[in-house]
Amino acid sequence: MPSPSYPQSPADELTRSEVERYDRQLKIMGFGRESQLKLKRARILVVGAGGLGSAALLYLAAAGVGRIRIIDKEVVELSNLNRQILYTSEDVGKPKAEIASRRLKELNPEIEVEPLQEKLTDENAESFLKDVDLAIDCLDNFEARFILNRACVSLSKPLIHGAVYGLEGRLTTIIPRKSPCLACLIPRKPKEPPVIPVLGSLPGVVGALEALEAVKLLTGLGDPAIGRLLVIDGYDLSFYWIDVKRDPDCPVCGEKEWV
Fold first, then answer.
1. Exposure winner among 43, 93, 125, 185, fewest CB in 10 A?
2. Is this model's pTM higher than 0.85 or not?
């Protein structure tokens, strides 16, 4: 499969409409026009346009990330609509990637969106990653998460990982070979139920935080969650951090030669 490509890079300046659109974030101390231009030049991959992806994609588009590639092979189902806020009842049966792309362009016509109705595999993952600055894991199964993690480590692409289950969420930012990868944190694929239970607002929270992490990585603003795992407990609304370390024997990012 040939590597997908984006249109020509945008001009290295903000238009009058962009200055007005991004006015509130341009006023953030330490942000400014140069940070906005970094977002405008950025290219990111979002894998999964479901509950996590809906929130992440909306906020990335609203923030002005210039090029967004979306991978999701599924179509909208009625049971998605308690959490997947990009879609409406009229979209049931339609491809998520295509509908998501259309909604993002309606929200912000200044950006470019590339929808791909594909399944992520070991064979195609690197082709989707080659020309992006970072990837965001908005997936709902560990098989695909591990594929994405392996490809990001192989190409040294930052990966923002988010996940939800019931009323619990988690998030971490992975810088390959500098911080723990997903295989360091979860060495073996956990047993997963056929359907993951979730209250709709929680993936919205985690997805929005994934978008925030992406903006921070792309602009240098603040302190990303590198080497730290954020755990959110929706039952008592507690947020806490777990320090995490690389596994030197990790088969994905460790120093040991695996054969």
1. 93
2. yes
Q: What is the mean pLDDT of residues 34-62?
A: 98
Contact 160, 135 (CB under 8 A): yes
Domains of the chain: 42-243 (3.40.50.720)
Q: Which two tokens stand for residue 70?
A: 């979306």
Is-contact 192 231, C-beta < 8 A? no
Model pLDDT, residue 256: 66
In the prediction, which pLDDT does 257 show?
54
Cβ within 8 Å of residue 237, ≥6 positions away = none
* CA pair distance 185, 108, nearest whole angstrom: 36
Tokens in use for 230? 């954020």
9, pLDDT greater than 70: no
Rounded CA gap, 38 and 5, in Å?
A: 19
